[in-house]
Amino acid sequence: MSAIHLIIAEHDGTHFKKSSLSALAAAQKIPGACHGLVLGKNIKSMADAFAKHVPQVHMAEHDGLEHRLAQPYAKVIADVAKSIGATHVWAAATAAGKDVMPRVAVRLDAGMASDIQAVIDDKTYKRPMWAGDITGTVQLHSPVQVITVRPTEFAPVETQVQGQVSAVKADPGVNNTRFIGFEAVKSERPELADATIVVSGGRGCKSPEGFKQLIEPLADQLRAAIGASRAVCDAGWVPNDWQVGQTGKVVAPKLYIAVGISGAIQHVAGMKGSKVIVAINKDPEAPIFQVADYGLVGDVFTIVPELVQRLKAL
Amino acid sequence: MKILVTVKRVTDYEAKLQIDSSGTGVKLDGVNMIANPFDEIAVEEALRLVEKHGGEVCVLSIGSGEATTQLRAAMAMGADRGILIKAADKLDGVSISKIITQIAQEEKPDILLMGKQSIDDDSQQIAQMVAERLGFGQATQANKVVIEGEWAMVVREADGGLETLSVKLPCVITSDLRLNEPRYASLPGIMKAKKKPLDERELASLGLDLKASLSILKLELPPKKQAGEILPDVATLVSKLREVEKVI
Ligand SMILES: Cc1cc2nc3c(=O)[nH]c(=O)nc-3n(C[C@H](O)[C@H](O)[C@H](O)COP(=O)(O)OP(=O)(O)OC[C@H]3O[C@@H](n4cnc5c(N)ncnc54)[C@H](O)[C@@H]3O)c2cc1C
Ligand SMILES: Nc1ncnc2c1ncn2[C@@H]1O[C@H](COP(=O)(O)O)[C@@H](O)[C@H]1O
Prior knowledge:
Chain A is an alpha/beta fold. Chain A is built from nine helices and 16 strands.
């Protein structure tokens, strides 16, 4: 029996997220039919856009789906999955995907593999465990499976199709949650998860001023996104949303520059997939040098300004 | 107000781990075990809420008998009592969610406080599964929790910023890193904890029909990356990035 995939297209109200195309890429590793699902209010344009990559897109519009709340979203996703006889339900392992999909699994009586990094066959996956210190191969035994996908491990699907969009009747059911507000981290810079270059600062930057003075000019010069270690987020120097690591964001840019970061495994878990890693640290024994491709040993307050000057001169 | 907090016994985040001979588990001899850090944060939050609104904090763990250590530690912080569901084998997330659900149905807490993620399985699924089974609303990755009558106002660490939700009680809340800083247990707290009730029950006594929906076929250490090159100066770095790697 061939698989029937349902891929959730996450969106921000105007665009669906590129990470949803990574979820699609993972689904396509298992032969079968692909369906997309877009939920929300006023979502036609996003459904149309997603249908450029998926042959059949279901559009669940309802006032009760205006805000992405786990309880009503899970019900509608599960209802659609049942109506098409889905065998595999996929989403990107973003904060939103992680919030909703386990509830979908319960509704479908499904087993769930979280944050997978590889598809072995139609029920077997690899996933990072213990902060990526260990890779687990896991198998699901349920007739229906729910899977969230680590976006950095699957290149977004680029091939285009002429898919169809069809509206489905959505019933959000009981909702015990109200959306009150969202305070976005404003930034002119690229999004951390999608950036081709990331510059991250750690406690070695010494203070919020030090962080600003070192990291911003370097990021500006490289048109990079800014990341940070947990120590820096906990100290309130930068928004929590910038934390890279096991319990923060996972990034895999072309170039990752770690400035004054020791390289604890919880941090490394979030950036070791980067193509080229540069570490700048005064301690030659710092574990970050074990994962870096290139290292500079010395004071970030002299090295980083010089680096910015030399980049400017190129 | 009654708060039920889940506490998982996990390997220390600083431990160097090795795969055991079965190939599906890690060697635990000589490895320090701790309470999952997110669960400690959940315990702290529960204590603060009860200090403010009155009530009781009950801690729950599922696992080997040794998890009593982590439950006693939570009681030394101030939790009132503990429940240990003794299970010999490692259970999958769905099974754990069924067990927690059953205990929640018996205990009827106003809030079920859990960690956003266990630092060994890293699966971030059990709390949401429990919420769905109970038909509760949820607020995951909490950064701030305020109780307002029948509702909990929760600020969550969402993608791209902070989201505020109001969730009707009873509900499930999961703790993120910056929700609070857990207190240390005091000496009198540790002494008192020894006398607090700890109800140890065998998994079989719950009468649940648990069938694993996920099994671990294999654990492996990822290939070790070769340590990179230490460069003499900034100029060399710039030329490597430009000419060799072509990333700038
Ligand atoms: C449950 C849990 C989850 C966690 N999740 C994460 C996570 O997601 N992400 C994360 O990052 N961490 C996480 N951590 C924390 C992690 O273990 C480390 O504590 C943290 O990454 C350290 O941050 P840091 O490297 O900035 O600070 P430090 O470890 O203090 O390192 C600072 C570094 O800067 C160097 N330095 C100092 N001054 C200078 C200078 N003038 N010039 C050059 N170098 C200098 C020092 O040599 C040192 O190596 C987690 C921890 C736990 C327990
Ligand atoms: N064996 C267990 N005993 C008690 N609580 C658990 C257990 N396993 C998971 N949990 C709870 O579920 C949360 C999320 O775990 P996970 O979904 O595995 O990332 C943890 O932070 C714990 O609060």
